[in-house]
Amino acid sequence: MGHLSATPVVDRTDDRTMILNMGPQHPSTHGVLRLLLEIDGEAVVRMVPDIGFLHTGIEKTCEAKFYQQIVPLTDRIDYLCPMVNNLCYVLAVEKLLGMEIPPRAVWMRVLLAELQRISSHLVWLGTHAMDIGAMSVFLYCFREREDLLRIYEMVSGQRMMTSYFRIGGLAMEPPIGFFQAVKKFIDNFTEKIDEYEDLLTGNRIFIDRLKGVAKMDAEAAKLIGLSGPSLRASGVDFDIRRDFPYGGYENFKFKVPVSNDGDVWARYVCRVQEMRQSREICKQALEGMPTGPIKADAPKIVLPDREKMKTQMEALIYHFKIVTEGFAVPAGEVYQAIESPRGEMGYYIVSDGSAKPMRVHMRSPSYANLQALPQMCEGKLIADVVAAIGSIDIVLGEIDR
Amino acid sequence: MALVPAITDIEQLKDRPAVAALLGWNAKAVTGAKFDRDELSIYVARENIRDAVAHLKSAGLTDYMSDVTCADYYPREPRFELAYHLLSISRKERVRLKVQISGDDPVLESITGVWPSANFFERELFDLFGIRFLGHPYLRRLMLPEDWEGHPLRKDYPVEGFR
Fold first, then answer.
1. Is residue B95 part of a domain?
2. Which of A367, A393, A387, A380 is nearest to A225 (CA)?
3. What is the sign of the dihedral through the CA atoms of A384, A388, A391 and A394?
4. Do the chains contact at B67 and A359, CB–CB below 8 Å?
5. B143 falls within a domain
6. Cα(B82)–Cα(A331) distance, integer angstroms
7. Global pTM value
8. Would you say residue B73 lies in a domain?
9. CA B62 to CA A43: how far, in whole Å?
10. What digits encode the pLDDT tens for the residues A8-27?
11. Which residue of A3, A36, A60 to mutate against B (max B Cβ within 10 Å)?
């Protein structure tokens, strides 16, 4: 296939237009997204996204690893909310195994997943506002995100690539002082959101840049595969946490913010409201946190405690077996979908009965959301492209995988 | 929740709305069904997949297309098994359509006419598995450069790549 060029080339369709190459190193594309724009003056006639700059073949790598070795790989897919990816993967494998996990682990997972949702939305809010021109919001958002990263560091030893969830529970008991730190954060967080809203929600420039831009109605949004807050901003009342409860979400009460406008402003409002709801869930999780073990009682699948491994022969044997041979997973296939901060995150895992998965496919929300971008931008002004990219909140790590 | 054995007898699954709808529409198109781990899979013949997806949509049984993906069962034939994950937001139900295709002739009809959201998913399968979709508007490599040789997610493609 040597006659083809290595990257897509778009030809002009008209003498009046020109081709503009946006990215992959453009700061407002939130990663290595390349957009080929055909423009007529200030108006976008056509848009062709070009992705794959960050393709690392994670799905292929997974096929060569034991089930438990894949957890760290899932961190790298959506690097703004690693624990949500971990959660989706471990839920899928637990479904394949038919495994039950103890309540404390369930609640901890919900608590951490919601904290990740907040920190992911904070990055989105900061960068989105910066794209529009409101520089200071970025600094405010990253101040709170820093607190959250410290909390993740407390619990897992890592700020970003946490790998804290395990098949069958959690890696370790949260340290002393963890719950107090979370409580301190969520107690102060409401006024922090008010602060962001003071800076943005009444801001004339911000409103003018966002209202009525990149509109998408409910029917079109469902057809093109939008999901998550972007879909809800188009008036589709659908949240996987509420409609297909997974991993303990049936125990929590929260509202799902929906808007009917379908523009960039509606997506902004939905996400900010979602942060407030996530805070509510965190609060409920802290108040009702059960006590007990954090790992399931399944010695052939869950690694034994370090202490036991060094003192008991049986635990040492299990440890050795799991690390060297992995554990066999009954043959079958599952599709586990969860609500990631960006939308429907799904893992499709096919097992052939051995210790390594036959196929791991990640349905990443950004990937499907990106498809909607040309529809949102074509016929609109080039300055609105930047607002539209920010509004669908894409993460290129999860698009390219 | 301990594992319960999968139900693979189509007679027992007849009263599921999606199975009933497809059987009522074209019983020959449905080649099997499976209910395993709370998930319903319906096997559809290769030539009927686009119409089956369109029928489930027009019958109001699905209103969202989540995912299209594939698994390679090399060296078994038919080698590829495609999985279409469809969702009904209003009825809160998921259904998976499955199609088996052989390695010699990995061609089937594109569903982009029914669900435009399948566009990137089918391009990804073309890129990484080498499956061709008839009627796709822009079937080109997506992840890899256009002069890449081979399809990495096939089982006969080494993990470390060709050296």
1. yes
2. A367
3. negative
4. no
5. no
6. 17
7. 0.91
8. yes
9. 36
10. 677 777 778 888 888 777 76
11. A60
pLDDT at site A4: 47
**Residue A141, both tokens:** 């958002």
pLDDT computed for residue A151 by the predictor: 92
Distance of residue B27 Cα from the nearest chain A Cα, in angstroms = 25
Global ipTM: 0.91
Residue A127 CB neighbours (<10 A)? 20
Task: Determine if residue A57 is left, alpha or beta; phi over 0 gives left, psi from -120 to 50 gives alpha, anything else beta.
Answer: left
Tell me, yes or no, if A225 comes closer than 8 A to chain B by beta carbon. yes
**Which region holds residue A59: left if phi is over 0, alpha if psi is between -120 and 50, else beta?**
alpha
What is the mean predicted confidence (pLDDT) over B77-84? 89
Ramachandran angles phi, psi of A274, nearest 5°: -65, -35
A247 interaction partners in chain B (CB closer than 8 Å): none
Section B42-50 average pLDDT: 89
How far is B34 from chain A, CA to nearest CA, in Å?
A: 11
- Please name which of A114, A60, B86, B85 lies closest in space to residue A73, comparing C-alpha atoms: A60
Residue for token pair 């946190």 = A289
Domain count, chain B: 1
The pairs formed by B14-22 with CB atoms below 8 angstroms and a separation of 24 or more are B16/B40, B17/B61, B17/B91, B17/B93, B18/B42, B18/B56, B18/B61, B18/B62, B18/B93, B18/B95, B21/B55, B21/B56, B21/B59, B21/B61, B22/B52, B22/B55, B22/B56
Q: Which residues of A249-285 are buried (b: 16+ CB within 10 A; e: fewer)?
A: beebebebbbbebbbbbbbbbbbbbbbbbbbbbbbbb
Paired with B95 in beta bridges are B86
In a domain, B145, yes or no: no
What is the edge-to-edge ordering of all strands in the sheet holding B30-36?
B30-36, B39-44, B93-101, B80-88, B64-72
Q: In which domain, by residue range, is B90 found?
A: 10-134
Distance (Å) of CA A23 to CA A53, A76, A277, A380:
11, 22, 35, 19
- Domain of B76: which CATH number? 3.30.460.80
Tokens at A161, concatenated: 């690539």
Domains (range + CATH), chain A: 58-400 (1.10.645.10)
Task: Indicate whether A348 pLDDT > 90.
Answer: yes
Q: Looking at beta carbons, which residues of chain B come within 8 Å of A73?
A: none
Tokens standing for residue B12: 């027992």
Confidence check: pLDDT of A3 > 50: no
Instruction: Tell me, yes or no, if A324 comes closer than 8 A to chain B by beta carbon.
Output: no
Nearest CA in chain B to A94: B1
